[in-house]
Design a protein that fits this description.
This protein is about 35% helix and about 15% strand. By secondary structure, the chain is α+β, with helices and mostly antiparallel strands.
Length: about 230
């Protein structure tokens, strides 16, 4: 009888302690499922956002199955990556095949980020250092790794782009001026500008022609021609 009473007493104490412990367990309200879960059954990412393990596991699996290249925190507006080391350390995904496929995609992404296409010959080259410029091993072309333009020491990519845009605009204006104020020599094809009233033109290449009709010049061109060209105009 004494042993039986002692056993009953021990069971009562045990049940009391378990009840006390259950009441002292800190609970966390998950923002995905809105259920209260013990903190021991949660995961907190490096960004500080915490979720119950069930929800974070489902989110990670869904992202992996959608072939996303990197798994991110499910908190709205947060772009913090959930590291693969955490996924393995906390057993957040129990599908080993899914983990292997995700690892393969990460390795492929890392390789692509370290690979550059030469803007000249379009062959690929690895960029494993932090230097600004690169030289293609195939065609030897040197270029800026950030903007893929020719090397521009002393200028940022934005400054270089502005200079190129300004140069192009100046070239456009120059081309337009040449088009409006010059004509092309029929022989050498270079632009020539008329600087006087005489329509008898002599190009630097030696070719002579009429400025009005562009025909080859002859001694009688302005005296008898069907186009009505006159030698002098204002």
């Amino acid at each position: 009888p004494y042993n039986k009473k002692l056993f009953i007493l021990e069971e009562c104490v045990k049940n009391y302690r378990e009840k006390q412990n259950s009441q002292n367990v800190l609970l966390f309200s998950c923002e995905i499922c809105y259920e209260d879960k013990p903190y021991s059954d949660t995961y907190v990412n490096k960004c500080g956002h915490r979720f119950c393990k069930s929800c974070i596991c489902d989110s990670i699996k869904e992202q992996m199955n959608n072939t996303w290249q990197k798994v991110h925190c499910p908190q709205h507006g947060c772009s913090q990556v959930i590291e693969l080391s955490d996924i393995n350390l906390y057993d957040l995904v129990d599908d080993k095949q899914l983990i292997n496929e995700y690892t393969e995609r990460l390795n492929k992404k890392m390789f692509e980020e370290q690979t550059i296409l030469c803007p000249k010959c379009h062959n690929s080259l690895l960029s494993l250092n932090s230097t600004v410029n690169a030289q293609c091993p195939h065609c030897k072309h040197e270029f800026c790794k950030k903007c893929l333009c020719v090397c521009h020491p002393g200028k940022t990519c934005e400054e270089w782009k502005k200079q190129v845009d300004d140069d192009n605009e100046n070239m456009r204006k120059t081309t337009e001026w040449i088009k409006q104020n010059t004509k092309i020599c029929p022989k050498c094809k270079n632009p020539i500008r008329k600087n006087g009233g005489c329509n008898h033109m002599t190009c630097s290449c030696g070719h002579q022609f009429c400025w009005l009709c562009m025909a080859d010049y002859t001694n009688t061109h302005f005296k008898s021609n069907t186009t009505g060209c006159i030698q002098f105009t204002n």
